[in-house]
Amino acid sequence: MNILDKIIFDKQREVILKKSIIPVSQLESSVFFGRETISLSQKLKTSSTGIIAEHKRRSPSKSVINHNFTVEEVVKGYENAGACGISVLTDGKYFGGSLDDLLLARASVNIPLLRKEFIVDEYQILEAKAFGADLILLIAAVLTREEIKSLSQFAKKLGLEVLLEVHNQEELEKSIMPTLDMIGVNNRNLKNFEVSLDFSKQLASRIPDDFVKVSESGISSIEAISELKPYGYKGFLIGENFMKTDNAGKAATEFIKSLE
Predict the structure, then answer these.
(1) 237: exposed, middle or buried (C-beta count within 10 Å: 0-12, 13-18, 19+)?
(2) Quick check: is 165 catalytic?
(3) At residue 192, does pLDDT exceed 90?
(4) What Cα–Cα distance (Å) separates residue 252 from each residue in 81, 95, 97, 125, 238?
(5) Sheet strands (E) in 71-141
(6) 152 catalytic residue (yes or no)
(7) What is the mean pLDDT of residues 212-219?
(8) Is 220 helix (H, G, I), strand (E, B) or coil?
(9) Which among 66, 79, 108, 116 is annotated as catalytic?
(10) Of 198, 194, 230, which is closest to residue 213 (Cα–Cα)?
(11) Looking at 11, 56, 213, 234, which residue is catalytic?
């Protein structure tokens, strides 16, 4: 069983447990549930930099990245830096995140928030909406075409945008449908965690222009973004590069300034 299979196995058990504790009615009565969401895809279309900055404490491949910042410090720093949106990891076991991180982020900033999670059930999409997210991530590697269709339709009904993550042509071809807003190419192989920008380059021409193209993982330099922009990428998700510094907001500010 590879790391991704383990994460999904644990996630399915976690969702069953959460459903037994917190009813849907409680999520729907959240103060953020009726909030109008902010479109990340629109922001990326008009941005000259396209940075989606990430709040991430640790990962299976790097263990601890940074535990020294508060969520508020990080996300306010990202907003002030001019990030188009912020990705907030909410998985606890493998990434050290939580839904509380999303809630704190929503209370601190007024830019689009992505709930970065391994979504396998509509219940998690209700949670995303209740805790202040503007968009969700769906990972093609762990979902069937039918699951992608039903989960993305459910998200759209709630007013959430959908970023679909793919790793190869097969995943891309099974996933293309009108209920997606953005297609992200993960440059990290989730089975062995190796990183290569070639994933983004090879798939770029196969992503229809109806979708905003996002490149994720392994982007740590201005050169990498300059390399990917000619391929039509409008969004660039950067996590560890900012989080591993002493001041994530400052690192993001310097990075975004040198892009402008």
Answers:
(1) buried
(2) yes
(3) no
(4) 6, 21, 20, 28, 9
(5) 85-89, 113-116, 135-139
(6) no
(7) 94
(8) coil
(9) 116
(10) 230
(11) 56
H or E element at residue 103: helix 99-108
**Which H or E element spans position 237?**
strand 233-238
Q: b/e string for 65-81 if b means 16 or more Cβ within 10 A? A: bbeebebeebbebbbeb
Q: Give the integer Cα–Cα distance in Å for 154 and 252.
A: 33
56 catalytic per annotation: yes
Say what the pTM is.
0.95
Structure tokens that stand for 55 in this block: 């709040």
Amino acid letter at 206?
A: R
Does the pLDDT of residue 31 top 90, yes or no? yes
Kindly state the DSSP code that residue 141 receives in the 8-state scheme. Answer: G
Express each pLDDT in 46-94 by its tens digit: 999 999 999 988 887 666 666 678 999 999 999 999 999 999 999 999 9
- Mean pLDDT throughout 28-34? 97
186 among known catalytic residues: yes
Distance from C-alpha of 53 to C-alpha of 184, rounded to nearest angstrom = 14
Active-site residue 217, yes or no? yes
From the list 47, 175, 186, 187, the catalytic residue is 186
Q: Which of 38, 40, 37, 108 is nearest to 71 (CA)?
A: 108
Name residue 260's amino acid: E
Helix (H) or strand (E) holding 234: strand 233-238
- Check if the beta carbon of residue 249 is closer than 8 Å to that of residue 81: yes
Q: Per-residue DSSP letters for 59-77? A: ETTTEES--SS-HHHHHHH
Please tell me the distance from the alpha carbon of residue 22 to that of residue 203, in angstroms, as a whole number: 40
Give dist(CA 26, CA 82) in Å, integer.
34
